[in-house]
Every structure is written in C-alpha cells, then in structure tokens.
Amino acid sequence: MKKITLVYFSPTKTTETVLNTITRGLARSLEISGSEITAVNFTSPEIRETVLAPFDGNDTVLLGAPVYAGRLPADAADFFKKLTASNTPAILTVVYGNREYDDALLELKDIASACGFIPVSGAAFIGEHSFASTDIPVAMNRPDENDLKQAEDFGSNTGNLLKETKDLKKIAALKVPGDFPYKDGMGKGAPDFIEVTDACTNCGICATVCPSKAIDAENGFATITADCILCCACIKACPEQARLMKNGPIKDKAKWLNETCSTPKPPQIFFATAS
Ligand SMILES: Cc1cc2nc3c(=O)[nH]c(=O)nc-3n(C[C@H](O)[C@H](O)[C@H](O)COP(=O)(O)O)c2cc1C
Ligand code: SF4
Ligand code: SF4
C-alpha cells in the first residue's frame, strides 16, 4: 500500500476534520506521507460530476459522510456508488449529530463492498449537529479533543491491522450495526427555513459552499427550497450571520434534539479480523 486517498462529503466540515485526523494516524502507521496522500472532497456539485480512476492494491481509501436521517445523504451515496476498486482496503466513517447513525454505516459498507473495496474498519464519530446554533447547541464542539484522539488511534490501529494482514481477500468480513432494508432516507426539498437579513453584503460565500446549487444569487441569495438538502452549510459559512434559521419545523427539531440527545455519545469503532 503506497497511497492514501480520502473521499468524502462534508457540508459543515465535521466529517472532513474526522477523516483528516484518522489519516494522520493511518499515514504514520503505514509510513505514507506528502503527495502520496490526496483528498477528494466531493461536497461541491462540480466535483460530483467527475469519475475517479479505479483504485487498486496500491491504494488505501477512506470513505466518509455525515448521517442524514439515519442514512447517507443521497448525493453522497450516489457518488460512492460510482467508485470502482480491486483489492483495495477501505476505511469507512460516518459522522452524526449525537442522535443515532441507524443504518448509515451499514449502507456505506454495502456500497463500498459492491464497488469492489474490502472494508477493513468502520467508525461512527460525533460531530456538531448541522442544526446547532449557540442558542440550541446540539453536540456543539464535537468532535472534541477526546474524539480526535480516538480518530487518530483508529487510523493507526487500522494501519497496524493492514500491516498484519497477509491476504486482504481472506480477511473476515467487517461487521457494523444497522438493518437492511434500511430506514427511509431523505431526498432534496426543504421547508422554507432560512431567512436572509439586512446584514447580507452580497458576498456570495453561501452560494459557493452550497452542495446543492440551492441558493439564488440573482434573488437576494434566497434558498431554492426544492433543491435544498437542509445541510446548513450556508448558515454556518455566512461571515455576517445574515442567514438565520426561521422559527418553524426545523428549529423545533433542533430544540427537540437538544433536549432529547443531550448526553454525549462516544465514538464507535469496528475492525475486520486479520487473516
Ligand atoms: C438533513 C440532516 C439530517 C441529519 N440526520 C441526522 C441523524 O439522523 N442522526 C444524527 O445523529 N445526526 C443527524 N444529522 C446531523 C449530522 O449528521 C451531523 O451534524 C454531522 O456532523 C454533519 O457532518 P458535516 O459537518 O460533515 O456536514 C443530520 C443533519 C442534517 C443536515
Ligand atoms: S454568505 Fe451571508 S453575507 Fe454573503 S451573500 Fe450569503 S447571506 Fe449574504
Ligand atoms: S441552501 Fe440548503 S442545501 Fe444549500 S447550503 Fe443552505 S441549507 Fe445547505
């Protein structure tokens, strides 16, 4: 194994942070560095139009995405399904907002296997909930220092497992929680849940970070609700705090999550057994 590639979707960047930290431990264990480590952040719709070259036995690939309604975001699942691999170990990570990850890690494992990857380890980490704000701080400041320490250890332990494994094809199948048929996921389309205030300076950053081309720059940077995936990247990226969550069902959901999912959950980590 000579190369590490990170392939991820991460509108509000918690998945990105976790994957980068896992990679630090993995790269140290496998003694891979510099230009042999590359990242494909397919959050932007333009990157999702590209087709990646097939991965092979020289590659180790980290696949990562947030959990949306207990599943992978549909855009992330669709991109992962286009990957092809042969004799390539995959490290699977989902990041969720301290409610549950339900079937998301199983879905990622099933997609990775169907693409030809050999899943060798999997993890569910906690990230600040996309719906969180200072008033409604659901899983605020996760991943924290302890999460990141565990992420780095997860990476180095996966590297050690890969070094011990003589024949990847004989590795015992990775087991992760989840049920098939999976629970219903979410498609595109959101309630009108964002207001743009007079503080907007027309800088355009929100439209740049939107993974769904759901912001109308010609119309006061209003949200095109039919295309919105509720990711809240635009709210978090606005430098003027001019995009605010309106009162309504999404804010009510955030309040409910803050009340019912307030006990911090620990990361969960799974390994296949070396042969
Ligand atoms: C539409 C939507 C649905 C979500 N569903 C869940 C969920 O089912 N369980 C959960 O714990 N967190 C859920 N979250 C929270 C995200 O999984 C969490 O905030 C994650 O850290 C976001 O990753 P990112 O920063 O890489 O975008 C949801 C977030 C959004 C936007
Ligand atoms: S990021 Fe904020 S300030 Fe910039 S255009 Fe969007 S709403 Fe306006
Ligand atoms: S408009 Fe919707 S999809 Fe686009 S960044 Fe904002 S919340 Fe996410």
In short:
This protein has helices spanning 14-30, 45-48, 74-81, 104-115, 145-164, 205-209, 233-237, 249-260, and strands at 3-8, 37-41, 59-66, 88-96, 117-126, 194-196, 215-216, 222-223, 243-245, 268-271. With 275 residues, it is an alpha/beta fold.
Provide the descriptors you would attach to this structure in a database record:
single chain; 275 residues; alpha/beta; Rossmann fold; Alpha-Beta Plaits; 2 domains; six-stranded mixed beta sheet; 10 strands; 30% helix; 19% strand; binds flavin mononucleotide; binds iron/sulfur cluster
Number of domains: 2
Largest sheet: 6 strands, mixed
CATH architecture of the largest domain: 3-Layer(aba) Sandwich
Helical element count? 8
Mind telling me the CATH class of the largest domain? Alpha Beta
Tell me about this structure.
There is one protein chain. This protein is of the alpha/beta class and 275 residues long. The chain folds into two domains: 3-181 and 264-271, Rossmann fold (3-Layer(aba) Sandwich); 194-247, Alpha-Beta Plaits, CATH 3.30.70. Helices cover 30% and strands 19% of the residues. It has eight helices and ten strands. The protein has a six-stranded mixed sheet with strand order 2-1-3-4-5-10, with helices on both faces. The chain has a two-stranded antiparallel sheet with strand order 6-9. A two-stranded antiparallel ribbon has the order 7-8. Strand 3, helix 3 and strand 4 form a beta-alpha-beta unit. The longest helix is centred in the middle third of the chain and has 20 residues, at 145-164. The radius of gyration is 19 Å and the shape is globular. The mean pLDDT is 97. The structure holds flavin mononucleotide (FMN) and iron/sulfur cluster (2 copies). One iron/sulfur cluster binds at residues 196, 200-206, 221, 238, 240, 242-243.
